[in-house]
């Protein structure tokens, strides 16, 4: 997967189209049903995705103008906006998702080349502007899974799954309690090592299933463990 934010927009557009198709299939009862995220309905997930697009527009604007715009006004405002939008009718959710996706695309298109070198203040700290398009793609693809609506990690592209897997592995490796595990990708023998290799269990399987398990979005049922035993429990992901 390319690291060029402009070239990566093709992946964002495709992921957004898939998300919109899923959102368009929901009626009011579907939106009120539980998502995979504790305490959130599907309506909460869709409201979050729309507000997340607004947040990324703020960060792109900050990178372009030099203005100190935060992603969200505050964590309390973020939570309140998601809660307020969660119970809207299906058509309102769909319109909001489309509108904010268009605003995100426009904000990316407005970025001059030099603005991608800026650093912006994301929700959890400073972030390179060059990673904002990847960040939006990650939000769409992971939260599409959270909708519990027949979208699976296997529907991710191999390139997306590989990049997410490496990012999650790096996140866990630098955390306060890094696990020791060797992740072995089916088909190519490639391995990603977290922590100490010696004595660590080997968890093997397709890249999408490994990535979904590593970020806590799947139970790892398709994965194998050597030596035999239970899958380790990954630390909390972002």
TrEMBL record:
<dbReference type="InterPro" id="IPR034660">
    <property type="entry name" value="DinB/YfiT-like"/>
</dbReference>
<dbReference type="Pfam" id="PF07398">
    <property type="entry name" value="MDMPI_C"/>
</dbReference>
<dbReference type="GO" id="GO:0050077">
    <property type="term" value="F:maleylpyruvate isomerase activity"/>
</dbReference>
<dbReference type="InterPro" id="IPR010872">
    <property type="entry name" value="MDMPI_C-term_domain"/>
</dbReference>
<dbReference type="InterPro" id="IPR024344">
    <property type="entry name" value="MDMPI_metal-binding"/>
</dbReference>
<keyword id="KW-0413">Isomerase</keyword>
<feature type="domain" description="Mycothiol-dependent maleylpyruvate isomerase metal-binding">
    <location>
        <begin position="13"/>
        <end position="148"/>
    </location>
</feature>
<feature type="domain" description="MDMPI C-terminal">
    <location>
        <begin position="155"/>
        <end position="234"/>
    </location>
</feature>
<dbReference type="InterPro" id="IPR036527">
    <property type="entry name" value="SCP2_sterol-bd_dom_sf"/>
</dbReference>
<dbReference type="Pfam" id="PF11716">
    <property type="entry name" value="MDMPI_N"/>
</dbReference>
<dbReference type="InterPro" id="IPR017517">
    <property type="entry name" value="Maleyloyr_isom"/>
</dbReference>
<protein>
    <submittedName>
        <fullName>Maleylpyruvate isomerase</fullName>
        <ecNumber>5.2.1.4</ecNumber>
    </submittedName>
</protein>
């Amino acid at each position: 997967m390319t690291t060029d934010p402009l070239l990566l927009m093709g992946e964002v557009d495709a992921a957004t189209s898939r998300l919109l198709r899923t959102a368009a299939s929901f009626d009011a009862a579907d939106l009120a049903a539980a998502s995979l995220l504790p305490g959130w309905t599907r309506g909460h997930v869709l409201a979050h995705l729309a507000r997340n697009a607004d947040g990324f527009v703020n960060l792109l604007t900050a990178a372009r103008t030099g203005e100190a715009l935060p992603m969200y006004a505050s964590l309390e405002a973020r939570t309140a906006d998601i809660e307020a939008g969660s119970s809207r009718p299906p058509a309102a959710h769909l319109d909001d998702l489309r509108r904010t996706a268009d605003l995100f695309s426009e904000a990316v298109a407005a970025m001059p080349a030099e603005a991608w070198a800026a650093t912006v203040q994301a929700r959890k700290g400073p972030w390179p502007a060059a990673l904002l398009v990847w960040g939006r793609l990650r939000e769409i693809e992971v939260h599409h899974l959270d909708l519990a609506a027949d979208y699976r990690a296997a529907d991710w592209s191999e390139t997306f799954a590989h990049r997410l897997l490496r990012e999650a592995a790096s996140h866990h490796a630098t955390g306060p309690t890094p696990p020791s595990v060797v992740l072995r990708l089916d088909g190519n023998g490639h391995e990603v090592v977290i922590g100490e290799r010696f004595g660590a269990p080997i968890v093997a399987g397709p890249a999408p299933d490994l990535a979904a398990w590593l970020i806590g979005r799947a139970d790892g049922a398709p994965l194998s463990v050597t030596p035999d035993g239970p899958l380790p429990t990954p630390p909390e992901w972002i």
